[in-house]
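Appendix B. Worked example

We walk through a single record from start to finish. Start with the input: the chain for RNase H type-1 domain-containing protein, Solanum pinnatisectum, length 203.
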Amino acid sequence: MEVKWELPHLGSYKLNTVSVKQSTGPGGIGGLIRIHLGHRIIGFSEHTPHTNPVRAKLLAIRRGLQIAVNHSLIPIEINFDSIETIHMLTNRNINMLYDNIVVECRCLMLKLKITKVTQVFREQNRAVDKLAKEGTKVAVFDEPNILLVPPMYARRKVETDILGTMYTRLTNNIPSIFQGRDVTQLNRNGHHAAVDAPIHYPS
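Next comes the structure step. The output line below is what the pipeline stores for this chain.
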């Protein structure tokens, strides 16, 4: 199956985030905010302390949302590759283990007027993955490395995203069973079609 990074809608920004977490030890998070032509507005790379993979993903999303709020980047779309995290952010029920950070993310999303989040494959997040991996090497806790210019180690991936480079994602030969917004779907051309999850904010 062929997939690629999808441009945001005209007049909109897009935030992509990724976390890299080893089975033991600290990890890294990264994110990119880009405009509709794919050109980079701002990015970040950050070291994370000992934590679990779910919290690491939430930390990446929170940091990206904080940066978007601080720079008034509205309207903005958000994409990441974790279905579990999408459920936490879009459903009314919250896992109590992550209550504080999920509520904080929702408040930031409300400020940014975000009405949905979209799940993408990790292959569509290659540029951001580079930033997250770099974060594993920088042991400065709670202080992101804000990037206004694409660093050399990620520049090529950013450029290939702008060009619409396709990547091959290996899948099983048997048909997949799609359940609502829990997984991505394919369009008629066999390409990836992201599934959008509407957000249920507390009334």
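Two observations about the output. The helical segments are 53-70, 83-90, 99-111, 126-135, 152-162. DSSP finds five helices and eleven strands in the chain.
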